Amino acid sequence: MNGAIFFSGNYGSTEQYANWIGEATGLPVFDIKDSNANPSNYEYLILGSSIIFFKLTIRKWASANLSMLKGRSKILFSVSGAGPSNKLNTWVANSLPSGLFSQLDHVALRGRLDHSKLSWWLRPIMWFGSLINPDSEASKDERFGFDYVDKESIEPILKLIRQFKPNELPEK
Questions:
Q1: Which of 56, 69, 68 is nearest to 96 (CA)?
Q2: pTM, whole model, 2 decimals?
Q3: Mean pLDDT, to the nearest integer, of 90-95?
Q4: Residue 8: phi, psi to the nearest 5?
């Protein structure tokens, strides 16, 4: 089976994870903005997306390519400040075309927030959000930034990919 990685991100964490997965598997990596990013050329797909304001950045691409996504095995990794949770799964499911979430395996990865890379209008929104966030640890992360990007965290994705390529990827 042949596969590929398609990602959408804003600040670099999602791209970093996509490249690490590509290095570990030998799969091609495509930014969805790339004109060569054609999911119909592959039997299985690894989709990577940042989450901004509770929505996947890949959502419009997924809707536009829905016919090419159906019938293929899919893994989605989402990247955000939030760790795995039912709330995060709800955000992801609500970002995707109806029924697509149930057709894929989802792995939540932690990202990075560097305030110096945010737009001038987003910085005060993050600051205000941190003041009303009831979770004190998340509030601190929103206010001061964080970096949870970790190469080891791609292992659950590699394990899922091994199901598609059982003899090609070594176990860790």
A1: 56
A2: 0.88
A3: 94
A4: -140, 125
